[in-house]
């Protein structure tokens, strides 16, 4: 049977736990920071190291068979991938936040306001549900500084501890979406024996952690 390819984050918040999960599954591989692909010695799997934003697209197109990526990225890219397993790490919440002294009190108060985010699609869908028309400003990083610079009235960004919001004079206002790392797969993997074995090992690792 043909080796499967799994895409994981090359560096960043999900890299270490993704690597650790695969190692805990008994997979033997070198984790060279410089190589973009590595072959597992004792299991029919190759590992691709990618930017997290690219993972859903690679899986959707079948360049990778599997991926480990945050649900926030899957939703934002609106990729057609299959959810195989929730992995319980990388937990965070996409939240709307406003300056501590903001006059915004209700979701409706966001009408006509400027909101900075790296998640324009998720935010647009959320606002549409409340029939709110806001000016969504796409910013790719350091979203939290934009209200202080006068660039926006609110932000929509990932929060885990809340420390970054606080240190930028912001307070959480509404939860938009919870997220965690997910094992996803391309379409057409049903009945694949390598995948079945991998999922069984992942389930044992997750169970042992409970
Ligand atoms: O280079 P690459 O594109 O692969 O990585 P990246 O920089 O885009 O993403 P990275 O590594 O920061 O995050 C990868 C994934 O981890 C995200 O897509 C989420 O699914 C998940 N995750 C979990 C988080 C956080 N927690 C998190 N706290 N992603 C980002 N943050 C950032 C957030 O954007 C904010 O700036 O951390 C800051 C807030 O943290 P707190 O603890 O101060 O609230
Ligand atoms: Zn990214």
UniProtKB/TrEMBL annotation:
Function: Catalyzes the condensation of ATP and 5-phosphoribose 1-diphosphate to form N'-(5'-phosphoribosyl)-ATP (PR-ATP). Has a crucial role in the pathway because the rate of histidine biosynthesis seems to be controlled primarily by regulation of HisG enzymatic activity.
Keyword terms of this UniProt record: Amino-acid biosynthesis, ATP-binding, Cytoplasm, Glycosyltransferase, Histidine biosynthesis, Magnesium, Metal-binding, Nucleotide-binding, Transferase
Domain ATP phosphoribosyltransferase catalytic residue range list: 51-203
CC cofactor: Mg(2+)
Gene Ontology BP annotations: L-histidine biosynthetic process
Keyword Chloroplast: no
Domain of life: Bacteria
Homology family: Belongs to the ATP phosphoribosyltransferase family. Long subfamily.
Residues of the full protein shown: 1 to 210 of 283
Subcellular location: Cytoplasm
Record's GO cellular component terms: cytoplasm
Protein name: ATP phosphoribosyltransferase
Annotated source species: Sphingobacterium detergens
Pathway field: Amino-acid biosynthesis; L-histidine biosynthesis; L-histidine from 5-phospho-alpha-D-ribose 1-diphosphate: step 1/9
Molecular function, one GO term: magnesium ion binding
Reactions that this protein is recorded to catalyse: 1-(5-phospho-beta-D-ribosyl)-ATP + diphosphate = 5-phospho-alpha-D-ribose 1-diphosphate + ATP
Annotated EC: 2.4.2.17
Means of activity regulation: Feedback inhibited by histidine.
